[in-house]
Structures are given as C-alpha cells and as structure tokens.
Automatic annotation (TrEMBL):
CDD domains: MDR4
SMART domains: PKS_ER (SM00829)
Domain Enoyl reductase (ER): 9-306
Top-level division of the source organism's lineage: Bacteria
Designated name of the protein: Zinc-binding dehydrogenase
Length: 309
C-alpha cells in the first residue's frame, strides 16, 4: 500500500512510499482510508521523534475493508471514523472497534476525519468538567481544532462560553458565530470566576486560567500547543476562601474507553451541519508538507485535511 512515511530528510519530514498492509487483531477492523486530519501534536513532536519509515496518523475516516474477526464493530462497507496511535496516513489502517465510529452514508469523509482527536477531546474534556448548563466555561486556543469544537459543544450544553484567542479582533466574529459569548485575548480578561476550563495551550495560559477558577471548578488540560512549561506561584494551589476544591486534571484520549459512541455521535453532528469542523486547509496527501508548514507556523486556524489516494 502507499503511505506517508517518516523521512527526516524530506520537506515536512514525510514522503510518499510503500508500506505493508497492516494485519488486524481479532478486535480490530481493517479500514480503507479516504481522508485524515492533521493534529498539532503529531506533526510538531511525533514526526521529529519517530524512526525513519514509520507510518503515523491518529485520525482517519474511510470504509471498513475487513470487519473485526471477533464480531465487534461495523460490517464490511460501512463508512467509519477511527482513532489509533498511528497508521492513519496510509491507504489502509487497523483500528480497535472501541475506537471506531459509524458515519452517516454520503457524509464528507474529509470533514468527518476531523472528529477523533479534536472533537472527542473537546467532548470528553467538557464531560470531565461536569454539568455545564448555566455555568461559565473558558476555552483557550479557541480557534484551533479542539478549541473550535469545545466552543460549539459548550454552547450546545448551555454554558456561558468565554473563548481565548491571540487575535480577538480578527477572530472574534468567527468565534461568536460558533457560540462564544465573550472573546478575550487572555484568561485574565474573563472577568468573573469560571466553573470550568478546557486548556489547549499550557504554560502561562494554563496557570492564568487556573487562577480564574471559582470554588469547585475544574481545569482540564488537553494539550501544550504553546510549548511552555507551567510554573505556579507560591500558594496558587492553596485552598483559601473562594478557591476551595478546585481541580486540575489532564486528559489522554487514547487512554479512554467507549469512544465508538462519541465518534458516532460527533460524526452525525458534523454530517448534518450541527457542528462546524473548521476546515482551513484541504488537499491531496502529496501536499502534506505544505499543510504541515501552515500548521506549524500558526497560519492555520482550524483543521488541515489530507485526501488519501
């Protein structure tokens, strides 16, 4: 099969080449991939640290070529969206049926390929915060893939949504269209304390966002796109008056179970237009280096999609 192989001498660190078709385990399906979406973490750190010839890729949407031998998961010919720790940047990938969602017939598989990491991360992070109806929820990195989904899902859940972006004037109208009630340049500008935070950036923004938590509030860290370490000042974690029982937790999506339901529901929302996947770049997979450069230089607001084959 053809695949994007790690090649540290090539532009973007990838080249099109040949790789063996993967053999699924009994609880896995073999998927013929039609599209994949790129995520900051895999192109920023994954390519750099991977051995030559590796096939990476977390997200992929396509059609079941061979159903799981144990009888779990969808049948042959079913359009699906999948999450796995690697293998998405190829004509075929294997995926656990627990991480495979069913896609409505006729849906744009490119748009659906944005669902696994970005959509499911946002959904699980908001679930970890707890009931958000009538609560104040702050989202950092709001114009990125996870951030856009988090803004939309939080608004649908009845939250008062505060979106953080480095360009509130230029991106404010877009974020308000997605569902943000307020758009600010930094967590410190959020005004009143918040009940929950979905943090994609890490570093100083995470520390500042944690400071905005009210009593019993929860910050869910889902990424470190800013590339900075966190340094909390003295007593930042102390539970004095007004700061009781605040939580700081992390979310690692590949460690979660039951994702097939999440992926199926999210795919339906994207297919019907209820959720906007925020496609900012789309092209053939031989243009991967262009997409990666756009993503790493912060010129991309939203998701980059590669059409496979």
């Amino acid at each position: 099969m053809r695949a994007l192989l790690v090649d540290h001498s090539a532009p973007g660190g990838l080249r099109l080449g040949e790789a063996p078709v993967p053999e699924p385990a009994p609880h896995q399906a073999l998927i013929r991939v039609r599209a994949t979406s790129l995520n900051h973490g895999e192109v920023r750190w994954g390519i750099e640290g991977a051995p030559e010839g590796t096939v990476l890729g977390w997200d992929a949407a396509g059609v079941v070529e061979r159903a799981a031998a144990d009888g779990s998961g969808p049948a042959v010919g079913t359009p699906v969206v999948t999450l796995a720790p690697d293998g998405g940047w190829a004509e075929y990938r294997v995926a656990d049926t627990d991480r495979t969602g069913v896609v409505p017939e006729g849906a744009d598989l490119g748009a659906i390929s944005t669902v696994p990491v970005a959509g499911a991360t946002a959904l699980r992070a908001l679930d970890r915060i707890g009931p958000i109806l009538g609560r104040r929820v702050l989202v950092t990195g709001a114009t990125g893939g996870v951030g856009r989904y988090a803004v939309q899902l939080a608004r649908r859940g009845g939250a008062h949504v505060i979106a953080v972006t480095g360009d509130p004037e230029g991106r404010g109208d877009m974020l308000r269209t997605l569902g943000a009630h307020e758009v600010v340049a930094a967590p410190e500008e959020a005004g009143a304390p918040v009940d929950g935070v979905v943090d994609v950036i890490g570093g100083r923004q995470l520390v500042a966002a944690y400071e905005k938590l009210g009593p019993h509030g929860t910050l869910v860290s889902v990424g470190q796109a800013g590339g900075e370490s966190e340094h909390f000042p003295l007593r930042a974690l102390y539970g004095e008056e007004g700061r009781n029982n605040r939580s700081l937790v992390n979310l690692q999506l590949l460690g979660a179970s039951g994702l097939s339901r999440d992926l199926t529901w999210l795919a339906e929302q994207v297919a019907t237009g209820t959720l906007d996947p925020g496609t900012s770049w789309r092209g053939a997979w031989d243009k991967a280096s262009e997409a990666i450069d756009t993503l790493l230089t912060r010129r991309l607001q939203g998701k980059a999609i590669l059409d496979i084959g």
